[in-house]
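Contributing new complexes? Match this layout with NAP.
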Amino acid sequence: MKRLEGKIAVVTGGSRGIGASIAKELGREGATVVINYNHSHEHAQKVVEQITAMGSSAIALQADISEAEATKIFIEKVLEKYGRLDILVNNAGITRDKTFKKMSFEEWHKVIDTNLSSAFNTCKIALPAMLEQKYGRIINISSVIGQSGGFGQSNYAAAKAGLIGFTKSLALETARGGVTVNAICPGFIATEMVAEMPDTVLEAIVAQIPMKRLGKPEEIARAVVYVCESEYMTGECLNLNGGLYMQ
Ligand code: NAP
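Output block (do not edit by hand):
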């Protein structure tokens, strides 16, 4: 028996990067995985095929999770199809880096809506179902930047720090209901999001990481499985950052 056999999992932004790795790892452990995406239909479909090849079930569903109504329809579709939802990974995220002086209102709101309000949007519909079934694992993918701040990242840092506060508050409210709520704070992970950074900036970042390398998406994915299996951990923030930031 695989470790997550019988579980229904949703991964937002599961089409690429860390989310795709999380979706595959959950599938490898036997979960049925719903891969949410916004634009990358082909990438999402490829993840579905990879999970199916492992012998687990997967589907891809498009929804812009920064939009409350679209997210409601998306999560309701999952509940209608499977009758339950056990694991919700709020992973989808974007960057719109600019120094505060240059940052537009649009760039501020876009990042807050996509990286923070999205978790409210999904949980608003998923949590009542989890409490009803007396089981749930909510995992919010925050960031080391939410803990340390980041130059040119006031929007991103605010959203990611907000996710940590959201995680702890929701954990308090759900602790007696069989639902755990935890956050994972990755450091710098080798995905397209990081590849967008200029080489010189990236080299300077790696030089500051005690392990002297970027993290791998699979390393975050394995932490998600660990959180799924943890019965007594809630309101926690797991740091996977190669020693870059220690609390
Ligand atoms: P990525 O490679 O850029 O992938 C982002 C994913 O989010 C894509 O699947 C994208 O789907 C999805 N997405 C973006 N906006 C969406 C929306 N409105 N609705 C639905 N899906 C949306 O990013 P990543 O590096 O894997 O990052 C994943 C998460 O980890 C993010 O929350 C990020 O902030 C966090 N994180 C990343 C790092 C890092 O170093 N990479 C470090 C710390 C935390 P489409 O392509 O379909 O739009």
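Reviewers usually confirm one structural detail per submission. For this one: The mean pLDDT is 98.
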